[in-house]
């Protein structure tokens, strides 16, 4: 990737560079379901976790689950150590560590979890800045968290945001970057086609 034409790089985390073991997803949704009095199916859990089938909050509402209550319970049941232990790095994402250009991470994963995952995988030094989305920063496709990351990089030139969901491509375009979509799931699973400036099956294809 050091030979790429891009001067600035922004990456999503979950589903793009890392993922978690299926057993962990199941355990989280079982505990959230216990709190909410709702039994999530395997398909529902996978869909919400990986952002398959469209907007997460719209899916929750269609099942009769209030998004605010869901996300509160979701964040309360996750343990940083357990999350980090269940997380693995995609082999094709290792090239990110070789990028010789300003590099940022912008993730919906909360800071208390992100810090644990980056530390466990020993990839903190891959990124010059990390922005964890919150209500105050906004959530992708809102460009604000990406713009905060770019401001911290303090670098000019053309840039790209690499992510695994349509909200990542939207955030890239809204922030004036190219969008590279890494598809980790089949079109049948996702339920839609994500169009970006680059369509990848592996992160290292962008080199």
TrEMBL record:
<keyword id="KW-0378">Hydrolase</keyword>
<dbReference type="GO" id="GO:0006281">
    <property type="term" value="P:DNA repair"/>
</dbReference>
<dbReference type="GO" id="GO:0008967">
    <property type="term" value="F:phosphoglycolate phosphatase activity"/>
</dbReference>
<dbReference type="Pfam" id="PF13419">
    <property type="entry name" value="HAD_2"/>
</dbReference>
<dbReference type="InterPro" id="IPR036412">
    <property type="entry name" value="HAD-like_sf"/>
</dbReference>
<protein>
    <submittedName>
        <fullName>HAD superfamily hydrolase</fullName>
    </submittedName>
</protein>
<dbReference type="InterPro" id="IPR023214">
    <property type="entry name" value="HAD_sf"/>
</dbReference>
<dbReference type="InterPro" id="IPR041492">
    <property type="entry name" value="HAD_2"/>
</dbReference>
<dbReference type="InterPro" id="IPR050155">
    <property type="entry name" value="HAD-like_hydrolase_sf"/>
</dbReference>
<dbReference type="InterPro" id="IPR023198">
    <property type="entry name" value="PGP-like_dom2"/>
</dbReference>
């Amino acid at each position: 990737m050091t030979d790429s034409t891009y001067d600035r790089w922004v990456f999503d985390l979950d589903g793009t560079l890392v993922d978690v073991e299926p057993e962990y997803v199941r355990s989280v949704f079982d505990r959230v379901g216990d709190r909410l009095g709702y039994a999530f199916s395997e398909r529902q859990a996978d869909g919400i976790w990986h952002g398959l089938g469209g907007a997460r909050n719209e899916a929750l509402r269609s099942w009769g689950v209030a998004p605010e209550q869901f996300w509160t319970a979701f964040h309360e049941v996750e343990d940083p150590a357990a999350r980090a232990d269940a997380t693995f790095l995609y082999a094709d994402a290792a090239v990110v560590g070789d990028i010789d250009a300003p590099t940022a991470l912008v993730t919906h994963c909360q800071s208390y979890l992100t810090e644990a995952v980056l530390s466990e995988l020993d990839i903190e030094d891959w990124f010059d800045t990390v922005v964890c989305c919150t209500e105050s920063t906004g959530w992708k496709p809102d460009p604000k968290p990406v713009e905060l990351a770019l401001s911290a990089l303090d670098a000019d030139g053309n840039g790209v945001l690499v992510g695994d969901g349509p909200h990542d491509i939207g955030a890239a375009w809204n922030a004036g970057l190219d969008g590279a979509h890494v598809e980790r799931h089949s079109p049948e699973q996702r339920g839609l086609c994500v169009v970006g400036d680059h369509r990848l099956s592996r992160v290292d294809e962008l080199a």
